[in-house]
Amino acid sequence: MFTFQGRGKSVTCNGQTRRDFLQVGTLGALGLSLPHWFAAKAQGAVPPDSDDRNCIMIFNLGAPSQLDLWDMKPDAPAEVRGPFKPISTVNPDLQISEILPQHAKIADKFSLVRSVHHTGAAVHDAGWQMMQTGRLFTGGVNTPHIGSVVSFERGRKTDLPAFAVLPQLMGRGGGNMPNGQAGGFLGKAHDPFALNADPSQENFKVPDLLPPIEIDSSRLARRRRIRDLVDQAAANFEASENADLLGSNFESAFRLMTSPKAREAFDLTKEPTKVRERYGMNRFGQCCLLSRRLIENGVRFVTINTFLTVFDEITWDIHGSKPFTSITGMRDIVCPLYDQGYSALIEDLDQRGLLDSTLVCNLAEFGRTPRVNPAGGRDHWPQCFTCGFAGGGVQGGRIVGASDPIGAVPADRPVQPADVAATIFHSLGFDVHATLPGPGGRPFPIVDSGHNPIHELF
């Protein structure tokens, strides 16, 4: 937290001391408690690319079972195939689980990669890092999220942020490691804007979007002159490079708070009730709807966390016994809301002509064990799992790679997290061989050497 302390002490119009008011970490009255993406574009940012594609990354926190959803093995022994049966889809070449009936209706619009794997530890945090950044963090270097790279390279289009996370950042994963949903070495300026609210709630509001109710518009306008206070109270700071950063940070905060376009983008009441109900009146469904609205209004990259932590809520983490999810909990609670929200998003983007310009990728930290455990669930398994891709130039209805007869390891076309990252960058029009200004100013590759997009998808 930056703290600016002037030589004197004065009192603002609402009774705050000047010193209190100039503590950036407590500037809630001005909206300066907003995430650090308000900071100015880092040096090296380039103009928007001619290919103006966007991305919605659905991160299936907890890790779905590939064997029970997208890579079923109906001829395997019962302890491998599990309790669910495969069903036909609109794609004659693809069968998926009976517990995803809405997916079956749109299976010509998404493609699956059934041979994703990684060598990281079988803990959630490690997989979160690898699948969202393309790397496991080593040597104290935190690699930026793919959305943060997009923010750094292309900046914002409108008053809205370039990169947003819905409904909020990931919580604990059990490994006590960074989760990969940050700007990393690119800096806090490229952290995502986190909604920090449940858009399915009747009284849904964005906490950091509007000023507190006790500050009316005229008082807010007067507060805009806080820059003068900063100038006077921090002359020495103003002589540094960070001064410009703070100035742009403030201007961005003020733009967002006072932007009718930003307020409207987050206003789900603008949507017909029928549309909201199609997505599902639950947190995930309304986040899917909100992601579409944000993309329409200029946000470049949206990550949706299907769940917030693997603890204390029903998730994809189907170990089978409390405090985790049972396989029936996945069938009765998780899959219905996911099936509804995802299918609605793909159909809506397609009907609005946005699917070709918006990549929707479905990722997870790993898969689940090939054999059902004694509790009737499945445990962590990074050795083989499935990811999905739709839109953004991806051809629907394709199946890339294959697992072995029990879904344990890739049998064809192995794919690693860096290849997934390269695929996303490729869809967005990036040169996957480009570099970023890394720690110490050294060039840092966007994607590690030897890893390439999954071209079979395009």
Could you explain how this protein is built, in words?
It comes from Bremerella cremea. This is DUF1501 domain-containing protein. InterPro entries: Alkaline_phosphatase_core_sf (IPR017850), DUF1501 (IPR010869), TAT_signal (IPR006311). The chain is α/β, with parallel strands linked by helices and 458 residues long. The chain has a single domain (49-204, 280-457), classed as Alkaline Phosphatase, subunit A. The protein contains 15 helices and 16 strands. The chain has helices spanning 18-21, 66-69, 78-81, 101-105, 124-133, 146-154, 217-223, 226-233, 235-238, 241-257, 260-265, 273-279, 283-296, 327-351, 417-427, and strands at 54-59, 86-88, 95-97, 110-116, 163-166, 193-194, 301-305, 358-363, 367-368, 380-381, 385-390, 399-400, 402-403, 410-412, 435-437, 443-445. The strands form 5 sheets. The protein has an 8-stranded mixed beta sheet with strand order 6-5-7-1-8-11-4-12, with helices on both faces. A two-stranded antiparallel ribbon has the order 2-3. A two-stranded antiparallel sheet has the order 9-10. Strand 2 (86-88) and strand 3 (95-97) form a beta hairpin. Helix 5 packs parallel to helix 15 and helix 13 (283-296) runs parallel beside helix 14 (327-351). Residues 1-50 have low confidence and may be disordered.
Gist?
With 458 residues, the protein is of the alpha/beta class. The chain has one domain: Alkaline Phosphatase, subunit A, CATH 3.40.720.
Question: Can you give keywords for this protein?
Answer:
458 residues; alpha/beta; Alkaline Phosphatase, subunit A; eight-stranded mixed beta sheet; two-stranded antiparallel sheet; 15 helices; 16 strands; 29% helix; globular; disordered N terminus; Alkaline_phosphatase_core_sf; TAT_signal
